[in-house]
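Saturday, quiet lab. Running sequence design on the structure tokens for the scaffold JK sent over.
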């Protein structure tokens, strides 16, 4: 009787380990995809900064140039 109980417990542990391994694989894939998205967004931000009128140089801007036309 104890052998059957031990075999059942081992089987349960194997099933749990299998589910945990599958979950880990899914999470690793999710992290990989998120890192790809982050890299893509960083590249887009860099490109947008280069396209901005200041050129992303950080030079001081004249606030009068930013006034709406009705002033």
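Result came back. Writing it out in full:
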């Amino acid at each position: 009787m104890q052998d059957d109980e031990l075999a059942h417990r081992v089987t349960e542990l194997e099933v749990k380990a299998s589910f945990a391994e599958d979950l880990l694989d899914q999470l690793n894939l999710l992290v990989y995809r998120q890192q790809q998205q982050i890299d893509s967004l960083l590249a887009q931000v860099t490109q947008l900064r280069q396209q901005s009128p200041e050129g992303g140089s950080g030079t001081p801007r004249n606030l009068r140039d930013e006034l709406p036309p009705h002033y």
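Notes for JK: Residues 2-50 form one domain. The chain is about 70% helix and 0% strand. Ask whether to fix the surface positions before the next round.
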